[in-house]
Every structure is written in structure tokens, then in C-alpha cells.
């Protein structure tokens, strides 16, 4: 298990240790959103990460989090700071609310399901060029009722499945 040892907020005093899987998932998210591979996430990258992960991503919220975790006042955070930020955010949120918010972020067309066009739009916003057949494959892999979309229940199964990551 990994242990984090930085205590600035009340949540941190009661924090549980992260599992190795959770640490790996956070590292994966960091690498995904560190689009320039600098080893740091800047404001716009943090905003995209928080939004994609289902956390509040309003300008004021992101600026506040950046200020709270950017100890050197550099305008960017490193992996350890990102890990602390996400750990605190995860501990303060209701999992059902997180799944619902994350689902709504992926359901960009507001149809009640995640379709290929939703995935295409998200990938584009993140600056990733993903082939159409790969996007279709993502939907097909997790579409258990074979209706061509990922509904909220299927999305929740994806999010809690350790095999996905």
C-alpha cells in the first residue's frame, strides 16, 4: 500500500491509505491529462481532468484547487500533488453522485446513453485522435444489452470494474 504524508486539510487527517490499484489509476489519469508530458498538470489540464473524472470543474473551483495543492505557486501541480487532490476529492464525494456526474459528462448529447459520437467529442476535446473503429469497439465491449449505447448501469459497471484499468 502507498502512504501519503501531507496534511493541510481536515480530510487528510482521516484519510485511508490508497491501494496500489488506486495509485496506479491516479498515475494513469495524470499521464493522460499531462498532454505535453512535462510531469506537471497546468490549469487547463487540471480542469479537463476534473471534468472528465466527474468533479466540479468551474473556473473558481479549479483555481481554488490549483492554489491549494500548488505548494510552490508555479501554476502547475506534479503527480504527488494531483494524487493528494484526487484523494481528498474522492473522500469528500458520494460514489453514486460521482457516477451520475461522470456519466452526464460522457453523455454529451444528453440522450441518456453514451454513444460513439460522445466518445469522439470527448477524445477531440482532450486532443486525442482515436480511430472510429476503436470508438465503436469501446461501446461494443461494454454494451451488455447490445443496444448500441452505454447506459448509466453499464457505465457504473465499467467504473467499478478493476479489469478496465
Based on the model shown, name its key terms:
mainly alpha, 165 residues
Structural notes for this entry:
The chain is mostly helical and 165 residues long. 57% of the residues lie in helices and 2% in strands. The protein is built from nine helices and two strands, in the order ααβααβααααα. α3 (43-52) packs across α4. The radius of gyration is 16 Å and the shape is globular.
Strand content: under 5%
Helix count, DSSP H or I runs of 4 or more residues: 9
Number of strands: 2
Helical percent range?
55-70%
Low-confidence stretches: 1-15
Structural class: mainly alpha
Assembly state: single chain
Spatial strand sequence of the major β-sheet: 1-2
Alpha-carbon distance between the two ends: 18 Å
Topology:
Blueprint: H1 10-13, H2 20-33, E1 41-42, H3 43-52, H4 59-69, E2 76-77, H5 79-91, H6 95-106, H7 116-125, H8 132-142, H9 152-160
Antiparallel strand pairs: 1-2
Helix pairs in contact: 2-5, 3-4
How would you summarize this macromolecular structure in one to three sentences?
Helix content is about 55%, strand content about 0%.
Amino acid at each position: 500500500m502507498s502512504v501519503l504524508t501531507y496534511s493541510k486539510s481536515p480530510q487528510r487527517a482521516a484519510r485511508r491509505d490508497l491501494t496500489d490499484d488506486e495509485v496506479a489509476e491516479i498515475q494513469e489519469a495524470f499521464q493522460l491529462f499531462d498532454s505535453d508530458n512535462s510531469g506537471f498538470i497546468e490549469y487547463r489540464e487540471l480542469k479537463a481532468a476534473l471534468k472528465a473524472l466527474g468533479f466540479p470543474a468551474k473556473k473558481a473551483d479549479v483555481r481554488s484547487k490549483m492554489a491549494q495543492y500548488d505548494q510552490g505557486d508555479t501554476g502547475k501541480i506534479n503527480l504527488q500533488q494531483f494524487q493528494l487532490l484526487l484523494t481528498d476529492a474522492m473522500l469528500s464525494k458520494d460514489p453514486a453522485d460521482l457516477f451520475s456526474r461522470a456519466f452526464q459528462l460522457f453523455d454529451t448529447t444528453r440522450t441518456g446513453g453514451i454513444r460513439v459520437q460522445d466518445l469522439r467529442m470527448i477524445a477531440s476535446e482532450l486532443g486525442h485522435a482515436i480511430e472510429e473503429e476503436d470508438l465503436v469497439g469501446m461501446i461494443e465491449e461494454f454494451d451488455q444489452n447490445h443496444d448500441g449505447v452505454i447506459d448509466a448501469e453499464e457505465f457504473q459497471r465499467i467504473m467499478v470494474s478493476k479489469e478496465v484499468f
